[in-house]
Specification:
By secondary structure, this protein is α+β, with helices and mostly antiparallel strands. Helix content is 22%, strand content 22%. The chain has a domain at 19-61: Antimicrobial Peptide, Beta-defensin 2, Chain A (Roll). The protein has a four-stranded antiparallel beta sheet with strand order 1-2-4-3, with no helix packed on it. The protein is elongated. 10% of the residues are buried.
């Protein structure tokens, strides 16, 4: 039983430390990166001063409000 608990603990820690993991942003539709891919655009900036790269279909549409 102790071996099972130790194994689960190690697997949980390793899943948190895997390289390449990116922070999610913009309602989990975007990823915080230094550069966006060709199919993504910057909409906001993340708290870690990286760009929040979001696909255009998930970005809000700009509306022109009549005054």
């Amino acid at each position: 039983m102790k071996l099972l608990l130790l194994t689960l603990t190690v697997l949980l820690l390793l899943s948190q430390l895997t390289p390449g993991g990116t922070q999610r942003c913009w309602n989990l539709y975007g990823k915080c990166r230094h550069r966006c891919s060709k199919k993504e655009r910057v909409y906001v900036y993340c708290l870690n001063s990286k760009m929040c790269c979001v696909k255009p279909k998930y970005q809000p549409k700009e509306r022109w409000w009549p005054f």
